Automatic annotation (TrEMBL):
SUPFAM superfamilies: C-type lectin-like (SSF56436), Hairpin loop containing domain-like (SSF57414). Residues 126-247 form the C-type lectin domain. SMART domains: CLECT. It comes from Mytilus galloprovincialis (Mediterranean mussel). Transmembrane segments: none annotated. This is C-type lectin domain-containing protein. It holds the Pfam family Lectin_C. InterPro entries: C-type_lectin-like (IPR001304), C-type_lectin-like/link_sf (IPR016186), CTDL_fold (IPR016187). It comes from the Eukaryota.
């Protein structure tokens, strides 16, 4: 595997970038106000590209230019680059088998994924979430939590904002399962104040209609997503066995 590293270049640094680009690609110093991106080549998928389902296909002068363009588009999770015809093709998802591509000799495949995101977890670059929706078994809240924590940096998924919630809901809807899923968060210590596994308060709480009017909040200290109301939040007591969503937090 070859490691290909760069830092995101925002628009305000665009002119600087262009200038440096002309001087030398290999000696570039990238200015970043976001985070360092690591693109990794997976040679399993050499000589492949996609005929459908990609975000865009452009001409890029180099592999590096292709990776920068991909980095700047949050829809891009991986890219295919061909040095022969300078084709740069962005895809929102990571390949799982060579059967997903079509043969184009000379094309290289690069993806971004935190090193500690397990292969059976789904990584979403836009939201920086590495998650696994456990739909094979149901557990009570504490057992689900323990199960997710069996992997280093793992736990029930902490949903911090609307975009992350929307991504999770989209993934859940693919499963066509009308069942609740446990997520991270408990207000056991202080009623109404939900704390995440990192010890910080969860301020994004998209309650379903029931949770706002029922009278059982004192005894209901954990969160699940309610399938009957578009997977909005419901507070429950955690004893019922539900399916659950794990994440591994990037190191
Ligand atoms: Ca409560
Ligand atoms: Ca409730």
């Amino acid at each position: 595997m070859a490691i290909y590293s760069l830092k995101n270049v925002r628009n305000k640094f665009g002119n600087l970038f262009t200038l440096l680009w002309i001087i030398s690609e290999s000696n570039l110093i990238y200015t970043s106000e976001v985070r360092e991106m690591i693109w990794t080549q997976d040679e399993t998928y050499n000589n492949l590209t996609l005929s459908a389902g990609f975000v865009w296909q452009k001409t890029a002068r180099s592999r590096l230019k292709c990776s920068v363009t991909c980095t700047n588009d949050e829809r891009c999770g991986a890219f295919f680059f061909s040095d022969a015809d300078k084709s740069c093709l962005a895809t929102p998802f990571l390949l799982k088998s060579t059967g997903e591509g079509i043969t184009v000799i000379g094309t290289e495949y690069y993806f971004f994924r935190p090193a500690n995101c397990p292969v059976d977890y789904t990584y979403n670059r836009k939201n920086n979430l590495c998650v696994k929706i456990n739909n094979a078994e149901t557990l009570n809240f504490n057992d689900a939590k323990t199960e997710c924590e069996s992997i280093a940096n793992g736990g029930l998924v902490t949903i911090r904002n609307q975009n992350q919630h929307a991504f999770i809901v989209k993934e859940l809807k693919k499963l066509l399962l009308e069942e609740p899923f446990y997520i991270d968060g408990t207000d056991e210590a202080e009623e109404g104040k939900f704390i995440g596994k990192d010890g910080k308060e969860i301020t994004y709480l998209d309650w379903d209609s029931i949770s706002q009017i029922d009278m059982s909040h004192e005894a209901q200290d954990v969160l699940c997503l309610n399938p009957t109301e578009d997977f909005k939040y419901e507070d429950v007591d955690g004893t019922t066995t539900f399916r659950y969503i794990c994440e591994v937090v990037s190191k």
